[in-house]
Protein 1
Amino acid sequence: MKRKRESVLEDQEVEKKSKVDENLEPNREEIFNFDIKLFRKKLKKESNNFFDDLKFFVNNAEKSPQLISDFLELGGRPLEIVEAISRNEQNNDVLSNLFQMLQYVSSKIIQQKGDSILQGLKFLVTKHSNTITKMLSSTKPSDKKVALKILDICVSTNRELGVDILKNIEVFTKTKNKEDLSEIFKVTKQQEQIRAAFVEFIISFLYNDADAVLRKRLLQNRILFELLLQDLHKDNSQIIERVLSVITEKILMSSDFSRLEKFKTFSSEVVKSLLKLYDWRGNESEKEHIQTISHYFLKLLLTNKKYGIVFKPFAEKVKNLRQLDVITTFKNVWMLEYPSNLVIEIVKACPDLIQPILDRLVMALRPKETTSWLMCVNFTKNLITAFDPKVMINFFTLLPAKKVSNNIIKLSVSELILENTKDNALIQLDKLEIREAVVSLLHLMLDRCCKFLDEIKILKNLKDFEQHRIKFDIINHIFTFFPNIDMILNSLYRSINLSVRKKSDENEALVKSQLKHTLEILLLLIERFPSIIEKIPSVVDYLEVLRPIYEYQLNSTNIEDNSGLEIEMKVVKIILLLQPNILSSDATMFNKIFSIMIQVYSCSKNENYRKEAKLLTSKMLHSTQIFSSNNPLEISIWIEALRFMKPNVLKETANKFIELIKSIKKSDDMHEKLEIKTLNQNLLKMIDNFEESEEVVNSQLSSVLTTLLRMESGKLNNIIDFVEISFILFYHTYPDLKKSFKSLLATKSSEHCERFLAYVNADELSNFQDILPTTPEFIYRKFQQSLITGEKFNMKDINEDEHQFLLLQSIFCSIKLSENNNLTDDKIELLINNIRKFYKNLKSQEEEKPISSEQVETSDKKVVNKIFLMTNEYSTLEIIMSHIFNSQSRLFKKFNVNDEPSQITKFVVKLVEIFNTNDNLQKSLLKYRQKVITQLKESNEANDTVVMNILEEFPFSDLEYIELMNTVLKNQKNLMQLRKIMILLKKISQRKTTALSSTQIHEIENSYMNAVKNPSFDFSAEFCDIFYDYLSTFIHNIADTTIALFELALLDELTVNRSFIKLLIMIFMHNDVNNDFFIANVLNLKKEILYPILHIAFRKELIVNKTMTSLYQTFKSGILRTIEKPNRTAQIYRENIKSTIQLIEKGMPINECRDLSMKKFKFDSTEVYQLEMLSAIFMKAFEKENDKSTVVFFNFFNNWLQMFGLAEKRMYDDFEKIYQNGLI
C-alpha cells in the first residue's frame, strides 16, 4: 500500500507536471502508493514541506475514504492535525487544507463511533480560537464552510465544546450587531453551502439532548438565533422544514424553557422573519406545503397557551406584544389566506388585542363595490365567530363591570363596525351582494351579543347589580348604534325590487339569504330587546308584503329540501310574537300554515324542523284562545293525535280539525253554544267515583273533544282514525272522567259512540285491544300488551315525543290494574322501571333545550310580558308531574297509609322517588302530604314500612316535618316508631332550617334510651349518629338534653360504640347539667366511656386529688404499655391522647416521671401519640433540677434516636408530622 519516495522534490515535480482535474476519478496507483506513515512524520515537523501530500490527501479523501481509514489505522489523530494548524497559522493555503483534513478525519471517527476526537477539538477551540475566527472571516467560501462544519462537529460531540465556542471565538463574542455577523454569513446563490453549514451548526446546539444549558446559551446570544431565521425565507424547503421542526421540538414544546424565556427568544425581528415564510418564493409545487407548516408553527408560537408565548389577556403584566406586532404588520390582512387566519387565531387567544384590528376595519368596511370589501366583511364575520362567549367570558373574571361591558361590545357589536352598516350599505348602494353581506354581518353581531348576555351569569366575582349594569350598558349600546329595524326592512324591500328587475338565480339566492338574516335579526330583537321595535304594525306589514318571496308550498316531494320552509317558520314565529291575532283561527293563512307545520312535525326527518314545527303548532293553537293556558297538556294531546295520522290523510285531518275549532269559535247559535258549554262543564266536573266523595277534578279541558264526539257519524268517516286516537289519549290521560265519557256517549246512538262506550266500560287492559281497531301498531297499545304479557318493553321503538304520553299511559295502566286487583309487586316494578326510563329521556331532552331569554332589560313591561309568555316553553316534566299528582283523583283516592295500604300507595311512593329530583315536586304533592299527616294523626294502625318509605321520599315542608315528629313521638308502640323518629330527625337535620322544641328533644332522648335498652333494635348506633348530626346543626338544643345519657352509661348491658362516645363527648362538653352526676359516679363509669371524656373533666376541674390518684392507678398500666408497645395497647389510649397527657401532667408522681425518664425503652414501633406521651413525661421530669438532669436529658435523645430509626426504617408517614409539631 505504501510507496517509497526518493525525495520530496521528486514528488513536487510530478505534482507540477501532472495536475489532475478534481472532477475526474483519482489515480488509483498514486493513492495506493501514498505513504501515510511518511505523511504523518512530515505533518509533525515544523516545516511545511508536507503541503503537496496534504493537498493530495484532501483532494482524494472524499472520493477515496480509504485514505482516511488508513490514516486512523496507523495512529493518526485529530490532535496531530490541530498541532499542525498551530504551526501553520500564517499560511492560508496550508491552513485551509488542514481544516479540510480535520473535518474529514473527525467525521470518519464519529462515523466509526470512536472516542479519540475530543482532545484535538478541545485544543483547537480553546487554544486556536483566533485561527477559527480567521477561517470564518476568510473571503474564500470554502474556508467558512469547512470551519462551520468543524464547529458543528464540536458541538455535536461535546456540550462543553459548544459552550467554549460561544465563549472563546471572537466572531460570536465581540460582534456588536447583526449586520456584522450577517456580512460574514451572507447568503448568495454562490454561497448556499455556507448557509446550509451555518444552519446545521446552529441546529447542533438545539439538538444537544444532554441538558438545556447549551440551548439556553445559544438563545442568550440572540443575534445568532435571529440570523438563523432572518434569511430562512430564502432557503430551500428541506432547510425550512428542518429548522421549524427542530425549534418546535427543542424550544416550544420543551419544558426546559419558561414562557417568559420563549418570549425573549422570539423577538419582534424573529417573528417578522418568520412571517416572511408566507411569501416564500421557492419551488411552486412546494409552496403550499411551506405555507402550511409555517402557519402551523406560527399558530403554535403565537396562540397556544401551553407551548407558545401567549400571556393571559387583561391580567398579566407581560403583554402579548409579539402578537400585536403580527396584527400591525399586515396592511390588508383579509386579502391573504394564511395571515388572515393567523390574525383571527391570535385575537381569539388574546382578545385584548381586538382594538388595533377594529381601527383598521373602520376604513376598510366603508361599503364599496370591490372584491376587497367583500373579503373584509367575510374576515370580520370570521373574526366575530371566533369569539365563543362561553370561552371568552372566562377572560373577564377579574375585570370590573365597566371593562366587562366594554370588552363584550368590542368583541360583538363594536360601533366601529356598526357605523359602516347603515344608510349607504343598506339602502343607497344598489348592489345585492353588499346588502346581503351587511345584513348577515348584523345578524352575526347581534347573535354573538345575545350569547354574551347569556354567559354573564357565570361571572361570580360580580354582584347582581353589577351584572345588571353590564346588561344595561350593552343594551343601551344596541339601542344607540344598531341600525333601525325599518332601515333593515326597507333594505330588504329594495333588494326584492331589484331582483325583480334583474332576474337571475344568483340574485334570487342573495335575496333569500338577506330575508333569512333579516328574520333572524327580528327574532333576536323581539325576544331580547322588544322596545327597539317601535312600530310593531309596520314590521308585520312588511312581512305581508314579502310573503310571495318566502311563501312555502308543501308537498310530499320537497318536505326535506325546500329552503323556504325554514323562512316560513321564522315568519310564523315573528307573527305569533308580535301580533298573534293575524294568525287567529279566522285568518285565511291559519289553515295553510297550520297544515304545513303539522305535516313537517309528523313527516320530516330533520329533528330541528320537527321541534320548531311542534312549538309553532302549539303556539298557533294557543292563540285561538280556545284552550286554557293553565293546561298545556291538552294541546300536546291534539298534536300527538295528528302525528299518528298517515301522510295521505294528514292534511285532510288537519283541515277538519281546524274547521272544528272555527265552528266552536264562530258559532252564532246561542242554544248550541249553551249546549256545548253545559256538556263541557259536565265533562270537566263529573267523575266516576265508586266511593261517595265530593272530590272534583278540575282538568280545564276545552270543548273540542266534546264537540268532536257529538258530531254525526257521516262527518267522521274520513277522520275516524284521528277521533279514535284522540279519544284514547284523552281517556288514558284523564281516567277520572270515565263517568263523564259514559254520560256523553250514552246520549248518542251512532256506531262510533258505541265503540267508544265499550272502550270506556272495558275493565281489563286486555279488553282494549280489539274494541277500537284503528292503528294496531299504536305504540301505546304495544305498551299495554307488554304489561299484560309481562314482557320487557322495547325502548328502541319509542319516538322522542312519545315519552311523556307513555309515562301518563303507565299511570293509567296502574289504575286499571289496581281496580281489578292485578297490580302485583311485579307489575309495579315493571311499571316503575319503564317510568324511570321515560323520565330520564324527558329530562335529558329538557337539558338539551337552549336557554330562553327570561329577562329583558326594558321598561316596556307590556311588551316584555307578552314576549315572555310566547317564548317561554312549559317544562314537560313539570306539566306531567302536576297532572299526575293534582288531576289524577283516582290515584289520590286509592293512596292511603292505613294498616292495609293499597298497591297504588306503593306505586305512588316509588313514583315520587323518581320525581324527587324536580324542584317543584313539593308543590305538586300538597294533597298527598296533607293526606299522610291527617291519616297518621287519625289512625294508630298505619303500615310502618309504607310510612317509612313515604317519610324517606316525600318532600315535606319544615312545619310538616315538625308536625309529623309530634305525631310519631306521641305514638311509640313498637320499634318501627323509632325508625320513623330517626328518618324525621335526619330530614330536619339535613334541611337546617327549623329546630325542634325542648320537649321534643326530651322525648327523642327517651326514645334513644329505649332503643339502646332494647337488644332487638339493631339501629341504635345509626340513631346515635343522627342525633349527633342534629345537635351539631342546632347546637342550642344541646342545653335541652338531660343526664339521661350518663345514666345510660352506668348500665352493664350497654354496648359502647364510637357513636355513643361521640355523642357523650359533645353533650358533656357543652352542657354542665351532667357535672354533678359525673363527680358522683366518675369511678363507676366504664373505662371505655370514662377515658374519652376525661380531658373534658380536667378542663372543667371536676377531678379532686383523691379521685386523681385512683384514676391514675386505674390507667397506669395502659399508659406504660402504650409508650413501649403502642401496637399492642388498647384503642382508647391510641385515640384519646388528650386524656393521657392530662393524667401524666396532673396525676403521675414526679418520682415516677424521673424513673421512667431514666429507663431504656425497647420500642416496637413509632407513633405520634407515643412521642407526645414521652414528651410530657420528660418535661415533668425536668420541672425541678437535680443531679440526674443531665442523664435524663441524654436519655431523652437516645429514646428519640431509637424512635427516629424505627420511623425511617418503616418509612412511617407520621414522622414528618412529628417533626412539624415540634414534639422533638
Note: Residues 227 and 1138 are 72 Å apart (CA to CA).
Protein 2
Amino acid sequence: MQNSDKQLMDSSATPVIQRVSPRSATGALSPLNKGAIDWGWQSFVAYGCHNFVVVVDTQHMKVFQTLENHKHDIVKVKWSKEAHYHDQWFPYNLKLASADTGGSIVIWNVAEATVKASFSDGTRAVTDLEWLSGNDSCQNFLAALHPPYSIIIWNTETGSKVWKKSYTEVLLSFSFDPFCDSNVVFLASDCILFVDDFSVSKVPSSNGRKCYISNPSTMTSSLQSLNTLSTGGSNRNISEEKSKPRSLLPRRMKFLIREESKSGSEEAISLNDCLQLAFHPAYRHHLLLLYPKEVLILDLEINQTIGIIAVERNGAAVTQMYPCWQREAVFCLHETGSVSLRVRHKGTSLASVCTPSEDTVSVGSFDNTVELCYDIRCQSDALRLTKHARLMGMAVCPKSECRVAVLISDGRLLIVELIPSQQKVDLPVKEKEELKERERPTSCCQLPYSSSVPSPCLWLSDMFGSLVQNLDPYCDNEKDILPNSMSLKFLITGYLNGLAPPPHVIRMCPPVTFRNWTVYKPLMAIGNALGGVQVFNMATGIIEREFSLLTAPVRGIEWVSLTAFLSYAYPNMMASCGKVRNELVLTDVQSGRTKVLRSEKNEESPIEMLRVSYMKQYFIIVFKEEPCEIWDLRTLYLLRIMPKTFPTITALEWSPLHTKKHHISNEVDGSDIQDFMSSFSVSSIVSKSSVTSKTMVLTREHFVFTDTDGQLYHFSVEGNVVRDGSKIPPDAGMGTITCIAWKSDHIVLGDVDGNLNLWDLKNKVSRGIPTHRGWIKKIRFGPGRGNLKVLVLFNDGVDLWDIKEAQLISQTKCAKDRPKVQDIDWAGSDRPVLATADGCFKITDINLKVCSSPLQDHHPTELPLSLHMLPVKPAFHFKSLLQHQPWQESYTLSIKEEDGFSPDEVSILQKQIETIDLEIQEYLKHCPFGIAERCLLVARLIGDKEAYQFWKVAVHYLKQEELALEVKTSDKQEEKDLLELSGDTFKPRQKQSCIDNQNILSPFNEEYLDTCFDTICDNHVYQKLQLERLLLHDSKRTTHSQSRKCAEQFLLLGQTDRAVQLLLEAETGQEHYYVDSLRACLIATIRSSGASQSVIKLVATNLIASGAISEGVELLCLIDKGSDACRYLQAAGQWEKSVRLAKVILPYTECQEVLKRWTDYLCSPHMNQKTKALLVLLSMGQFEKVLEMLRTFRMTERAALFVQACQEFGAIKKNEQTVDIIDTVLLDYARYLLSVNNRRGALHYCEMVGEKGKDLKKEIEYLCEEQ
C-alpha cells in the first residue's frame, strides 16, 4: 500500500485502477504431477499442478501465467528448444508442450495463453516428452512416449503424426544422443533398448538392440552390489578361474551385454530400481543411469561402466539428476530436498594392469590409468519436509546451470543458486600490467578495448574451468584442482508459495466506487484448512499478505472495510453433543494487527454464518443451534443476543436499502477500524466510540432471514435498538431456504431442491425458477451498479443467471473425476471466481469457460528480460540495440521514443532492462572484445541457444586467429634477433606447437571450447580428449573385444607400440591368438621398414569394398594414408567417424579438406544442418566463407554483425575482393533495421556503404519527414 499512500499525498498523481483478467491460482500438487517440471532457455519454469500448467518468472519469483485445457492431471511439461536462427519469419515465442494422464498432449503459446495444437493416441498417460533438434527444420516436431510400447513423432503445427513405431518392450523413458541425431536409448522395464537409425522423416527400420546390465563377478545379491559400490572402481579381485595377465577385474564392474550373448553365468542387475536415464551432454557416448544410491556412467563404445558416482553411506538417496553441458558436472536432488553438485576431476593414478615391456618405447602415461571420478563440490542444506510435503521434481536453468528449481508437493517452489563464496584468483599485478602495456603486433586489429569492468561470473563455466585445460595425459604430475577454481556454495535465492491446503473459503473485498478508486486494490481473502488467511491480489496474481490467525479450519470471511476483515473458525466436531470452541478474529491487512473477539466464550454451538451490514456498522453472528448475536462493528460491542425462542435461521442477508435522511456515508473508509487498532483495550474502544457517537448520526439498517419453514422475517437495527418488522409466508413450491442474496430492489432465494425465487420489490413481482440441480449452497450478486447477474453454487457445479431477464447465461458442471467447486465470489463485474476442491481457484470470463489471459492483459509491473513475450518488430529492434549501436556516440541501455519505439514499448523495455544485473549492464557497455563478445553475452541473456553456440565458437576462433598472428610475428622477430646475434643462417629452430601457444602471455589467450562442442574443438584439444578417453578404456577393458577396440584406437592415434602390446596379450589357447599375432607382426614390420605399402593399400581397398571398413581404415592409417581412409569413410556414409579420425591423425591442410567436404554434406537438402556447417567453417577459420553462407541463408542480422566483428579482429579486411560482399551485407542489414523501425540505425549503415545506399537513405529520410 506504499504506492497508494504516495498517490494520496500527491494530488497530481493519477491513480490507475488495477484491472482483473482471467487467471488461475494454484496450491498443493497432485501425486501424479511428480516430475512435471521444466526450465527453458527462455528463463521461465513451467510445472504441472493438477490439470493446470503454471509458468513462473524466476527473476521476480511470481506466477507469470497459468494455463488450463487438460481434463486430467499433468504428468510432463517441456519447453521448446528453439535451437534455430530467429528473424521476423521465425520469431521468438514461448512454446510449451504438456501431457496428461489421459494421453492428451497440448502445445501452448504461453504469451497468448492459447492452444496451438492438441492431439492424443490412446487414453494412457504419456510417460515422456522431448522436442527434436536434429536439423534446422525439426523445431516443430515432438517425440512422445505412449505406453506401453510406442514412440510417436508429432508435428505440433498441424497436430498430425509423422510416424509411429511400436517395440516389444514396455518403455519407461528415453534420451536422445546430443552428439548423434540417429541415436536414441530407451529405458525399458528389464533392459536398455538402443536404436541407431532414428530419423525424423522415416520410421526406424529395426526393433533396436536390447542390452542388459550384467555383473560378471559371482555375487550373492545384485542389490548388495549396488549398495556397496565404490567410486573409483579401484578395488579389484582375482578370479579363481583365471590367473592370466588380464585376470584382474574391477570388483563391481558392470557391463552392457546384448540379449543374444546373455548367458546364465552372468548376473543380471535389475533395472526396476533405475530412476532415470540420460546421455551426458558434455561427453560423447557417456550414458548415465540413476539409482537411489549411485549413478552409473556407461561408455557405449566399450559397453561398460567407466565410473560410478556413489552416494555416501549415510547420505540421502538421490531422486533426480541433471548432467551439465557446460562442464563435467552433475546436479543431484536428494530425497531430503538438498541439492548437490558433483564435479569430475582427473582422479588418482592407479597401476596399470599391463606393464609395458622394457624394450618398448612408450609414453609414461601408460603406466598410469585415468580414473573417472566425481566429487561433491558443494551441497545445500536439507529441507524440512513433512508427510504432507514431498519432493515433486527438480529443474536446472539450462543457460546458466547455476540455478536449480525444487518443486514441493505443497505448492512451494524454491530457487537454489550456486554462487562463489570467494572470488577466483586473478592474474598477478605484474602480468596484468604486461598484458595492458603489450604492444599490438598488427595494426589491423582494434582489440581488446581497454576496460576496467571485470567479466561477470554468472554461469557455471565462469565458476570453474574445464577439465580439458588440466587434462594432460603426458604429464606425470597430478592436477586434481580444476583451473580457475573457487569455493562454491548453495543459497536459496527465490521462494514462491502457493495457496494453502483446501478446503478454501474465499471472500472478495468491497467493490471499487467513486469514493475509494484512488486507493482501491482488488484483494481476495482466502481462508484455508490450517487456520490461515492469504490475501491475494487478483490483478497481479501475487499473495500480498499471509496470516496465521486461527487454530482450526477457517469457516468464513467477511470484509469490514477495504483493509480489514473478520474471520471465524471452529474445529471439526468430535463430541456427540455438537459443541465446539469458536474463534472470531478481526484483522487489519496493512499493519497485520489482529483483535480476538468473544475470547471469553467456551464450548458452544458452531458459528453457521457471519454477515456484515452494507454500511459496515453492524454484523450478525448466526449459530447452528443457538440464538444469533448482533454486534456494533465500530465499537466491537455486543448489542443484543436474541432470545432462545428466536426462530432458527437458515439464511440471512442485510438490506442494501436504508433511510437516506439519516445517511452520512455509503462506506466506512476503514479509518475507524484503524483507529481502534491503536489499542486493544475494550474500555478505550467504548469510550472513544461514545465520543464519536455524539458527532455522528447512525443509519438505520435492515436485514431479512428465513426459518426452517421458509418464512421470511424482516428486522431493522439502529444504534442498539433492534426492531421486529414484517413476516412473509413462504412461496408455494419452495423448500427450506438455504441462502439469500439482496441487491438494489431484487432479492434471490435458493432452497434445498434447487429452486430459485426472484423477488422484484419495486414492481412487487415474484417468480420461481426450478433448476433441478439439487441443494443451492450459495448465491452471490456481481458488483457494479445495475449489474443483476448472480452466481449460484450447487453440489455439482455453478450457474450464472441474469436476474433482470430471468435468463441462464452460462453453466459449468463438475465431472465425476474432476474436483468440485467449493466456493464462489466475484472479482469484478464480469469476473466470477470459483474455488475448487483441489486447492485452486479460477478467475473466469462471464461464460465460465476461460481462466487464462494473454500476458499483456495482466499488465505486470515487473518484467523479466525476454524477447519471447514481445511483439515481433519491437523484439528484434530491441535486440539490435543490445548487440551493437554504432550510430550512437556511445553504447547505452537507455531506451527512448527517438529510437523508434512507442511510449508503451519504451515503458516495457525499460522494465526489462532494469532486471539485468548492474554488473552485466556495465560489461555490455565495455566489452573488451567488441561486437562478438557483446553478441555472445546478449545471446545468453535472452536465452537464444543457437545464437550462443554461433558466437561462442566465433569468439573463440577469432581470438585463435589473432593469437596465431601474434605468434607468427613473435617468431619472426625471434629469428631475426638470433640471426643478428649468431650469424648462423643454417641453425634450425623448432616450430612452436599450438598447445604451447596457451602459455603465451596474450589478451587473446582463450580457454578451450567446452567439451560439448566435440568435433568443433581445436584439433590438439580433441586429440587430448580422445587419448584421455582411450586411456580410460584401456584401464577398464576386461574382454578380448574391448582389447581389440583399444588396440585399433591406439593405432589410429599413432600409439603403435601400445597397440602391439595389446595384440600380444592373447593367450595361445584362444581362437583369436593367431590373428592377433599376425596383426602385431604386421604393425611392427610396417613401422620399422615401411615396405610394400602399395600391397597394403590394395588389401585395405579390397577390405573396404567387401564391407570390412574398420579393418581397411586401420591398414590405411598404418601406412600413413589417413586422408584416403577418411575419404573411404565418407563414401560409406560414416561422416562423423571420418571427421573424428581426421582431427586426430591428419595434418592441418588435409584435415581442412575433410572438414570442407563435411560442410557440403551438412548443407545438403536431406541433412539440412546449416547451423552446424557454420560452426565447422568457423573452426576451420574460413571467416569469409562463413560470411557468404550467412548471406546465402538470409541470416541478415547475423551476417552484418559477424562481418563487423571480423573487421574488429582484423580477420576480414575491406579490399577489392571483399568490398562487394561487405557492402551488400551491410545494405541488407540497413533494410532489416528499417523493417523493425530502427531508422537511425538504417541511416547509419546506408552512410557506411556510400553510393550503394543512397536510394535507401533517401527513402528513410522521406519517411522521417512524413512522420
Note: The mean pLDDT is 82.
Protein 3
Amino acid sequence: MSRENSRIEEQHIKRSILNYSSEEKRFYRASIRKFRKSHVLYVILLSSIALLQVISIAFFTKGFSFCRSPIRHTAQYSPEYSEVKKFDKAVVLLVDALRFDFVVPINELDPIYNENYHNNIDIISELLNQNDNSTKNESKKDRVQKSSSLLFKFLAEPPTTTFHRLKGITTGLLPSFLDGIMKLNDRVVEDDSIIKQLFLRNKTIYFSGDDTWSRMFEPYLSPKSVPLESYNIWDLNTVDDGVFKFFNEHLTSKNTSNREWDILIGHIVGIDHAATKYGPNHITVKQKQIQINEFIKQIVKSLDDQTLLIVMGDHGMDITGNHGGKSSGELESSLFLYSKKSSVWKQEHSLHENNNDFYKKINQIDIVPTFSLLFGIPIPYNNLGWPINEISLSDEENNIHMKLALEQIRKYQLDSDIIQDKKDNNTLNTLYEQAKLDINKTHAFYEAVLSAFKSNWKSFDYLSIGTGIFLLLVSVTLLIIITKLIPSIVVNQMVTEFVQNILICTLITNICICIIFFYFGYFGFIKNIFWCISLATAIGIIIGCFRAILHRYNIKWVLAKFFSDFSDYWSMVGVIFLFIHAGLFMSNSLTIWEDRVVHHLIITFGFLALYEFIFIPNRQSTTALATAVISEQQGTLSGVSPSLANSFSLPMTRFARLLGTYHSIVLLLCTRSVSTITSCREGQLDYCVPTFTTEINYSWGCTAVFIVVLILLPMSIKGYYNLLSSYQAAAPIWIDYLLKLFLYFDIIYWVAIVIETKYDVTFINFTLINVTIARIIICFTFVVCNLAWMVGPLCIKLNVENADMRSQQTTIIGYSNIYGAPYFLLVINAFMSILFFNKPLAQISLALMCNQILSIMEIIDLLNIKENIIGPIVLSLLSYQQFFNTGHQFTLSSIQWDTGFILSDTVNFPFTEISIMINTFGPFIIVALSIVLLTLWSQPPDILKPQTLLGRLVANCGILVTYNAVLCLSSFIWLTYFLQHPMVWNIFYPRFIYASIILLITQFVVIFATIGFASGKLIGHINNIFWK
C-alpha cells in the first residue's frame, strides 16, 4: 500500500510540473535522448581507459616470465643406482602443516609450551630415543651411530602453499609464485619427478588424501588410488578418515593380500584445516594431533624390514594458523625417516635433544635425490636438491651418491641454459673440474649452482615491464586530464569526439601493426598475435584520447590547469595523502605498515575537518547546510525557496558548524574503533597484537558485540535519513524491514557457526542449516533487494497543507536529497551482500564503515568540496582501512579460504571463488558503489541538469580510479626497482598482485554497476519526473 501511494505521489508531481503541450513533449524527449546518449558514451570512454589499464597490467605481468616452461627431459637409468638401493617399498605420510615444533619434545616449563599443539605427536621422539638407547653403551669416539630413525628440520621455500611445496618435494625444483596457475588449470606436472621415475620403473603407487596429488600426477598413480576433495577448510575429518580407511585396507589390517603397492602415499589435512578454522591454540588441533600420533603408531607396527616410512610436512603455519608466506613458522616443517632395519644410515648427532635449534636443517628439495638413491631410481632430470649425508654408511657409498648427484646437477645446468652470465659459467666450470678430481669438493659446486640458479631462475623481459609501466602512466595521465583538468561540462560536450577518435584510431593502429607483424613474423618484442593486438589497441586508445584533447587544448594549458586546480587547501591535502600512500612501496619496512599509515591518514582528515568547523566559521555553506534544517511544513527555516537555499551564498550557520563537528567526531570515533581489529603480517609481529583471530571471532563476547552493533545499524542509518527529511516512502521499507530481516538471519547464521565451533553438538546438522540459511540470504540480498530497488519508489513524500484546491500548497518532503537517499538504498543492498561473507569482527567493522561513509558525505557537503579530489581520496583510504580491519593483509596467507564454503560444503565453481573474492575485496566494491554519493548526496533536482550531474559524478569516479591506478603504478615501479631485493617475492610482488586486482575490480564496479546501471537509471528516473 505504501509503495502504491508513493507511485501515485510521483505521478502527481509529474503532472504538476509537466505541461503537456507538443512543444514541451518534444523538448522532454530530446532531453531524454541526449542524456541516454551521453550516458552510453561515458561508459564506452571509461571502458576504453579501463581496457588500456588491463593491457598495461598484462604487459607488466608478461615481463615476469618466471612461470617457467618445463624442460621435458627425463633422467636416464644407470646401473650405479642399483648399487646404492636400500629399500623396495615406502610408506609416505604427508601431514599438511606439520610444523617442526609439533613433533619434538618441548619442556612444559618452557614459556613457548602450549598444550594444544606441543608434545601430542610423541611417537617420533619415542622412536628416536629407542635408537639412542640401543647405543648408550658406545663410547663417545663411536658416537657416529647405526640407527633406523632420522629427524630433520625440513625448510620450505616460499610461497608456502601445498601445491608449490608438493612440486618442490617431488621434482626438486624451486617453484615460482605463478606456477600456481597450473593448479587452477588442473594441469599435470610436466617436469621430471620421483613419481614419474617410479612409474617408469614399473612401481605401483597407491595414493589417498588431498586431491592436489591427482591433478599433478594422475597418469602415474594407480587406478586404485582414492583422492579426496580437500578445499573445504570447515571439513576436518573427511580427508583424514578416508586416508585412515585406505591405509587400513592396504597396510594396517592383517590381510596382506591387499599390499600390491610399492609406494603407499597418504596426505592428511586435519591439522591444517583445524588450525586455519580455529587457530593453532585450540583443542581441536590437539585432538587431530593425537589422532595422527595413533595413526603413525599403527603404521609403524605394520611395517616390514624392506619398507621405509617417511613422515613429513609440506609447510608449517604462522601464529594464526595460516600459511603461504615466509615467516619461520611457515617455513619450518618436519621430515622423519624410519626403518625397522638396523645399520641403514649414520646419525651424526643425538637427535632426541630437547632443543629445536639442535636439529639439522635441510632444504625440502633435498628429499628428491635422497629418495631416488634409497630406492635406486634415477634422480629427476631437473632436480636442484642434494642427497642427505646421513644415508651414506660408508665412504664408498657416499662417493657414489656424490658422483650421481654431481652428474645430474651438471647435466641440468648445461641443458637448461638458465645461467647466462659468462663469469658465473666460468666459475661453475672450474668448480666442476675440481669436483671431478676431488669428490669432497662436489658440495662446493652444488652450492654455487644452486646460488646461481636462484639468482637467474626468474628471467625478466624488461621491454614488457617497461611497456606496462608506460601504458599505466599514460592511462593515469588521461584520467587526470579528462576527469579533473577539463571541466565536466566540457567533457560532456567532448565525449562523442573522444569515443569516435578512440574507435577510429584503434582500428587504424590494429590494421597497421598487424600487417607489420604478419609480414615480418614479429613486431619488436611481440612474439604472437595476441600481444600484437593488445599493443595496437593500447596505442589506438592513447592516440584517440590525446587527439580529442589536443584538438581543443594545448600542453601549456594542461600544465597551467594542473597547477591551478591542485593549488587549493583541500586539493593539496589530497595530493599529500596520495603521495604518502604511494610512497610506502619504496621500502619493505613501510609497505608492511600500510595498515597503520592508512588509519592515520583518515584520522588526519577527520581532525582537519573538525578544525575547519570549530575554528573557521566564515566558510560558506552548500546544499547540505541549508537543507540540514529543512522544516517539513515550510521547506526551509529561512523560508526561502529550495533553489535559493541550495545556493552557495548563505553563510555557515551555528547549526551547520555543530552538525559538521558532530560528523567529524563520528568519523574519528568509528575510525579509531575499527583500528582495534588487527590482523598482523610477517614483520609486524613484534609490534602488533592480532585481534582478528578465530578464537576471538567465535567467542561469545565478540558475538555479543556483533549482535549489538548490527541491531544499532538500522537506527544509525535512519538518523542520517531523518537529518535530511529523507526517511520517506522507500527508506522505511529498506531500513525497517529488508535490512532488519537480513540482519535477523545473519545473526542466526553466525551464532550457529559459533555454537558449532565451540561445542561438540552432534544431534544437529549444522552444515545443512547453515548452507540453507546462506542460500536464502544471498537470494534475498542479490536478487530480491536489487529487483525491488529497480522498481521501487523514491524517498520522497507530498505534504499538502491546504485542502482548498484553489489555495493548496504542496511541499515535497525529501526533495533536497532526492538523488542520494534512494541511491544509498542500493549501497545498503551491497552492504548486506558483502556483510554476510565476512566473519563477526569484520561485520562489526563494516557496520561502522556504513557510518563512516555517511559522515564523510555530510562533511564533504558541509565544507562545499563536492568537486574536490579530497572526497574520492578519503573514500579510497577508507576502502583500504576496511580491507585491513576485516582481517586481511596484502599477503597470500591472509586470504580467508574458509569463506569459500559459506554457500556450499564442497568446492562449487564459481560460487566458491566468488565468495572468497567478495570477502577479500568487499570494501573496495562498497566504495566503488558509494563514490557517486559525493555528487548525489543532498543534491536536489532543480540545481543541475542531468547531463551536468552525470559529468560530475563521472569526474569523482575518475578520481577514485586514478587513486588506485597511481598505487598500482607505484607498485609497478618499486617492484621493478627491487627485483634483487630479498623480500621482493614476500612483500613487493604480492602488493603488485593485490594492487592490480583492486584496480580492475574498482574499474569494473564503477563502469558497469555505478555509472552504467545505478546512476544512469536513478538520474533518468528522477529526470522523468523533475525535468526542465
Note: Residues 79-132+145-385 form a domain with the Alkaline Phosphatase, subunit A fold (CATH 3.40.720.10).
